Amino acid sequence: MESRDKSPCESNVAETARLKASADAELTGADSEASVGVNSTSESGSPLDTRAQVLPGGKVDLERIARAVREILLAVGENPDRDGLRDTPMRVARMYAELFGGLYQDPRCHLDKYFVEKYDEIVLVKGISFESMCEHHLLPFHGQAHVAYIPNGKIVGLSKLARVLELLAHRPQVQERLTEQLADLLMQELEPKGVAVIMEATHTCMTIRGIRKPTSVCTTSAMRGVFKSNLSTRTELMSLIYGSK
Ligand SMILES: [Zn+2]
User: Fold this and answer.
1) What is the mean pLDDT of residues 205-229?
2) Most buried residue, 32, 66, 83, 243, by CB count within 10 Å?
């Protein structure tokens, strides 16, 4: 059995230092978008390191958000000093700190502890509810995720799958990337025979604004390993998720 000496929920120190330098450069530079850099590659060459990376700094800047929210209120023609709005900027700042708190936590920390078991059939957790924020509109999307894997010696506590999802969802996201990040992270950390993630979500940026289609549901899926290569395994999964009860 492998053992890992990485302490739980602690990000890699070198990685943190590198990201801090990049964030500092961004603060002093002009329009750089280096801090999140979804499509850039990291030093190690693994896209996952960048895509599920942890930001330096440890927390959201509440004062900065509050100043920005006050500006928005002014820009729409409101008076941010009237009674009902006076506390709104800081309230919104605390809300964003919660909704984007996942930027500062390493999702791998929930997968550090595993058990060695010979079980090598599908493990499926169905209907995990989640909420995330669309990075294009900063409006929520919410729905449910079905997460499955076929162990190859390692199993994790079932609640850990939901915790990893929760953490990745608490970042500015698009559903497609969230789905892939979760699948890739489970592949990397559990080294299973396969991983499948299916997400179904309602996007408020489609239901309350723009095209306004309140009944629309977006489904995304990421199949890895045997779920991708083996049709009968994938069919078995689909009947476990959607089959008649
Ligand atoms: Zn959107």
Assistant:
1) 95
2) 66
The predicted model gives 49-53 an average pLDDT of 57
What is the Å distance from ligand 1's center to 172 Cα?
Answer: 10
Residue 127 has pLDDT above 50, yes or no: yes
Q: How far is the CA of 179 from the centre of ligand 1 (A)?
A: 16
Q: Bin 42: left if φ > 0, else alpha if -120 < ψ < 50, else beta.
A: beta
Evaluated on CA atoms 68, 74, 77, 78, the torsion sign reads: positive
> Would residue 123 count as lying in a domain?
yes
Contact (Cβ atoms closer than 8 angstroms) between residue 202 and residue 168: no
pLDDT for the residue numbered 16: 41
Which residues are 125's β-sheet partners?
147
In a domain, 124, yes or no: yes
* Domain residue limits at 26: 2-107
Q: How far is CA 223 from CA 130, 155, 214, 215, 238, in A?
A: 19, 18, 28, 26, 12
CA of residue 149 to ligand 1 center, whole Å: 29
Residue positions annotated with a catalytic role: 134-137, 175, 203, 205
Q: For 21-33, what is each residue's pLDDT tens digit?
A: 444 444 343 333 3
